[in-house]
Amino acid sequence: MEFVKCLGHPEEFYNLLRFRMGGRRNFITKMDQDSLSSSLKTCYKYLNQTSRSFAAVIQALDGEIRHAVCVFYLVLRALDTVEDDMSISVEKKIPMLRNFHTFLYEPEWRFTESTQKDRQVLEDFPTYCHYVAGLVGIGLSRLFSTSEFEDPLVGEDTECANSMGLFLQKTNIIRDYLEDQQEGRAFWPQEVWGRYVKKLEDFAKPENIDVAVQCLNELITNTLHHIPHVITYLSRLRNQSVFNFCAIPQVMAIATLAACYNNQQVFKGVVKIRKGQAVTLMMDATNMPAVKAIIHQYIEEIHHRIPSSDPSSSKTKEVISAIRTQSLPNCQLISRSHYSPIYLSFVMLLAALSWQYLSTLSQVTEDYVQTGEH
């Protein structure tokens, strides 16, 4: 099915095929599980259960920093789960969060009183995103610097590190509007949506689709403000595995924002980038010129889709203009299309025929073996 979705995007088809046929090893290294202690094996088991996307990039980090980031991520996900659970009273939640570090040394500690069903109305969007994501960016940056994988400046510039986390968190919140509504959560900031509707769930009503999209565009415009800091942060990284770890989620986020911008589907279903698109981004985002090219591509996509009647249109254009002049000035943007459409079409046809041939050969061989066994 993923290959079918890529038929209109030859380069994605080619990269997805490369990825499936072993190319992933160049970007996601396979850990030697046998060399891990039992406690580390448990940590990575929980990591894979918690987040497939972050699990992959975390395990691709070099050396001991991989284990530190794994544990750091799991602890913060646990804290985030408690913080987001509105069924826990404030009187019980605050002491639990303050003392959470002590529970890490109690193997038998569990919390089983959650009855997550209450709706959260988010009133302080920037502060919330800072605590659940910005602090993650700051903490990771300090780990990278302390381990000497990166220069001290990476850990010292908390503003850029904070923006790295905020850009990802805001993107996820924007994209997940409908899913969060269906599960009784509300993360869109009331200070924004309150100017368009009386209740956040009203955006899912067909008669409100126009104002829903206007609110969506305003939130995306707000999120684009973080891109200059993201570019500055990534430009400072020197370790390849750290660069990949940081850059891949960021380019996925800008592609997701472009897919969501001015898109009614955000309020009707799921908006996701194609698997071939994600694989292509993962394979491309290994150096700064490529990352700048990717960012340029998607902010231009957004720019071309700005409706003249949108209340945020002038602000969106202003933000994009600032990104162009401040973060992408006179840079040599590499071409993201390495092969001509004709060549890629030929490769696609050859790959499809080869895939079918190998599948048929595998089936014939299996039938032959089964016949021989009888």
Automatic annotation (TrEMBL):
Metabolic or biological pathway, per its Swiss-Prot or TrEMBL entry: Terpene metabolism; lanosterol biosynthesis; lanosterol from farnesyl diphosphate: step 1/3
Example of a GO cellular component annotation carried by this entry: endoplasmic reticulum membrane
Keywords associated with the record: Transferase
Enzyme class: transferase
One GO term of the biological process aspect: cholesterol biosynthetic process
CDD domains hit by this protein: Trans_IPPS_HH
Catalytic reactions of this protein: 2 (2E,6E)-farnesyl diphosphate + NADH + H(+) = squalene + 2 diphosphate + NAD(+); presqualene diphosphate + NADPH + H(+) = squalene + diphosphate + NADP(+); 2 (2E,6E)-farnesyl diphosphate = presqualene diphosphate + diphosphate; presqualene diphosphate + NADH + H(+) = squalene + diphosphate + NAD(+)
Assigned protein family: Belongs to the phytoene/squalene synthase family.
NCBIfam families: squal_synth (TIGR01559)
Record's protein name: Squalene synthase
Species the sequence originates in: Cricetulus griseus (Chinese hamster)
Species classification: Eukaryota, Metazoa, Chordata, Craniata, Vertebrata
